[in-house]
């Protein structure tokens, strides 16, 4: 079995798990999760195998591991689909495999496997607890198992298939297929608890918003295909002539080159999928789904797919670049990335729900990555992508653990409070120590705590690149965003874990079971250590301990060698300063919040805070601009006029006309002619019979006369014919 | 016109006239008697043809048996209103025409026969037709089989007639 | 003179025409009379005409060939048999139906 075959096999186990669970083991919860986790383990193992192999190949970027098969016959030839492992897809495979496996294991505990069925649990609603009585007859409420347990594993299996398929594919078409599968799974999984109205609204919002992006992406792909006749990465992105051609031909649209326009269109798809402004509105609402979904889809993998795609088409984006100045498209990307980074960070500081903060944080961090791409810092973007996947997944899983702990407290005390509201938490470090430590590590990584966290190294890389290539505005804005990031992260940690418990439920929270805490620990290890693979070589003190693996390996994906930027103290100092500063301010402001207290930032910022809390009213704006008109058109135009009057009217008209024609034909044709003919035949036969039967008189003399007349006639005839006629 | 011819014409006319009266008379007994007359005429004609045996057989069988039988049948099936009812049925005109046509047709066809006008050849005196007939009727290479079959036929007719007319009790 | 007297001058045609006429009269009787016995009489006339024909042909053609006479014998036999059976049938019919008018015996009517 060679390495190419293994690459083909990587996406398969989760797909098979999906089908097996849906078709066979849907009723058996244990069997379902065994199948799903086995599939995840197999895919993880194969991915590690491939990664290890790929990492030992020299110059993998120039000759990646490629394999294709013919798929659809087109006019003259065949459409081939295939797999490709180059450095970018290898590192992506690495973090996807790990995060997917961790999240699968986590889901077993999150959905309360092993617990009894709930009292009033119905499929489509989150479980609300089961009443059990202990030996003394005391009844208490314990968490109950999720009713649709197997279905969850089936769908995350399908999702994993989509992501793996996207990562290993070697052309934009199969990438798009994986993209859409993930979009569908995201829809299904956000609305996993479909009986909740908010979840239903969120699932539709997510799908439609990403759809907007997908339309533009498809346009871009089609445009690319029409310009080059192919969609393979090898043929387009690694072919300098093609890139040159595309990069210098003007497209006629606002001065973009063809490559630039294609890149822009495809990037819009990434904007939708990675929830950048202006298509960011779906991601916070997507928190309606279960936390493993939020972790997997909306932190580690699906939203990363947008960044992966943009990284993949980077040669296209950079085509036509002159003397290191970014192209128009890159400028747009940088703008959107930077703007989103600061925009989302400002909203995050005003959110109360623990998962909402993390959602906006994700949007903001993705903005960092796009900003990095926009300024040409390819490797920094790759680095930050991988790091972010690990610590964001860690943070989400940690938040899920916190929510579970709070729910345990809610069941215990019978309080009716929102277990996700941070202002109801507090002091959880004593009650949930493992969760606390791992969440702290994740949070520090997010904030970029110097030296020991992965986030520091990746963010520092971005700052260094921005500063080193003189992108001042980007640098300053990102620095501000990093400051806010550290601030809201510390705010979150302080409100949740530090201080004293603000509610009874928080006082009675308990640590989660090992299936949930083990993944947290594993991810925390990565969040700390992985950053050390990317230390720049001329970093003071630590520079030469470990070679800059990330730079060497990931950088090979691009055709041109990219020089690492020279070390400069200013970005380093800036990143240390904003990170520690933000953490400090956050701790100071929130360390002594009592129960029932109002957010101190509200008092300080007043109306601005209200605007931030309401997400700059973007949802309301979109509702007014797009949703309400769409509903109006659907109701009045499509339904009332088009459907009822025009289409139904046409059908009614056809029906009544048919009736008229039918009646006419019946009365003027069918009855007189057809029936008449049939009747006439019968009648005339009867009449003929009546006429002819009068011959049968029963009198022999008559018969004889007839016979003799016939004989005479025939004889005469024969006589004349034979004798006279001769 | 020789004597023979005159006699022939007289006998023929008489026979035909009697025959006509048979088929047109209203009274059944009269018809039977006219039939006997016609049969007599035919017997005479047989003699004309030097078939004296047949003449005698004609008288004995036809007149002596058949005509008498008919008279018996007439008497046994006498209907009260037989004097009043019509002689002919509805289609008598058709029958008349058919007869005329048949007669004309047969006569015409026969006239086409080349030997139509041949006269009677002289019979040699040694020929004895009766003896010839007798020999022929019993010789196996002649008409013995036909003779025997005719006997069987008569037997069958005898038995059949008895059975058919048997009065069921 | 005596030999000439012996030579007859009746051509065969006279006998044949006579037979044809007798036959036609018999046919007329068969087809048009109502009483069944009269029909039988007509049939007898027809058979007699046939006999005349047969004997005439025997006499005027080869008088050594006796088959003409033999045939005539058969005709006699058949005529006799037929009359016997026919009258038996008429008597039987008369007993059942009370009539022997051919017009009224029409059970084969539709």
Describe this structure in words.
The complex is a heterotrimer of chains A (726), B (169) and C (110). With 726 residues, chain A is mainly alpha-helical. Among the domains of chain A are: 377-608, no CATH class; 614-694; 699-726. Chain A is built from 29 helices and four strands. Chain B is an all-alpha fold. In chain B, 70% of the residues lie in helices and 0% in strands. In chain B, helix 1 runs antiparallel to helix 2 (28-48) and helix 2 runs antiparallel to helix 3. With 110 residues, chain C is mostly helical. Helix content of chain C is 75%, strand content 0%. Chain C contains four helices and no strands. Chain C is elongated and about 50 Å long. Chains B and C meet through helix 1, helix 2, helix 3, helix 4 and helix 5 of B and helix 2, helix 3 and helix 4 of C.
What share of the residues of chain C does DSSP label as strand, in percent? Answer: under 5%
Give the ordered list of helices and strands of chain B.
HHHHHH
Overall 3D geometry of chain B?
Answer: globular
Tell me about the biggest sheet of chain C? Answer: none
Structural class computed from helices and strand pairing of chain B? mainly alpha
So, the CATH homologous superfamily of the largest domain in chain B? Answer: NADH-ubiquinone/plastoquinone oxidoreductase chain 6, subunit NuoJ
**DSSP helix count of chain C?**
4
Q: How many structural domains can be distinguished in the coordinates of chain B?
A: 2
What's the domain count of chain C?
1
Q: Name the average pLDDT of chain C.
A: 86
User: Helix content range of the residues of chain C, please?
Assistant: over 70%
Provide a quick synopsis of the model:
The complex is a heterotrimer of chains A (726), B (169) and C (110). With 726 residues, chain A is mostly helical. Chain A contains 29 helices and four strands.
Secondary-structure topology with pairs:
The complex is a heterotrimer of chains A (726), B (169) and C (110).
Chain A: H1 3-9, H2 12-23, H3 29-55, E1 65-73, E2 78-85, H4 87-110, E3 130-133, E4 139-142, H5 149-168, H6 172-190, H7 197-228, H8 233-236, H9 240-248, H10 258-273, H11 282-285, H12 291-300, H13 302-312, H14 314-318, H15 328-348, H16 354-374, H17 378-413, H18 428-431, H19 433-447, H20 454-468, H21 472-496, H22 504-507, H23 514-529, H24 549-555, H25 569-590, H26 600-605, H27 607-613, H28 618-693, H29 700-724
Helix pairs in contact in A: 1-3, 2-3, 2-5, 3-4, 3-5, 4-5, 4-12, 4-17, 4-23, 5-6, 6-7, 7-10, 10-13, 10-15, 12-17, 13-16, 13-17, 15-16, 15-21, 16-17, 16-21, 17-19, 17-20, 17-23, 17-24, 19-21, 19-23, 20-25, 21-25
Chain B: H1 3-24, H2 28-48, H3 52-76, H4 92-111, H5 129-138, H6 144-164
Chain C: H1 2-6, H2 12-32, H3 36-60, H4 67-97
Helix pairs in contact in C: 2-3, 3-4
